[in-house]
Design goal:
16% of the residues lie in helices and 44% in strands. The protein has helices at residues 28-33, 36-46, and strands at residues 4-13, 20-27, 51-54, 62-66, 69-73, 78-83, 92-95, 97-100. Strands 7-2-1-3-4-5-6-8 form an 8-stranded mixed beta sheet.
């Protein structure tokens, strides 16, 4: 059975400027690999709803669409990631990867 650090619904806000709900899952074993600064950045993003959904050109903190998927866009070199994630079509975001930010 999968252990999750987070598995709950959050309000997010994207291009349409209307908040809606997605389910965010963060696997515990992936979370445990994250550096403390990444964990702090992710927790800060999750604590402030609606969470901004950022396009590939978007700036600031939030969940960002990159070509390889979604990542928590924090002020860190490494990022918590959802490979293959699509901000427009996915209603569950499964963050099960941790690595160098795709955007840099």
């Amino acid at each position: 059975m999968m252990a999750y650090y987070i598995d709950k619904k959050y309000q997010v806000i994207g291009m349409g400027n209307k908040p809606y709900e997605v389910r965010i899952q963060i696997l515990q074993n992936t979370w445990d690999k994250c550096d403390l600064d990444v964990q702090t950045g992710v927790n800060n993003i999750l604590a402030s709803e609606p969470i901004p959904l950022l396009s590939s050109s978007g700036k600031g903190n939030g969940i960002k669409q990159e070509t390889k998927g979604l990542e928590f866009h924090t002020q860190t070199q490494k990022r918590l990631q959802f490979p293959g994630g699509n901000i427009r079509t996915d209603t569950t975001f499964i963050f099960d990867s941790y690595g160098k930010g795709w955007g840099h």
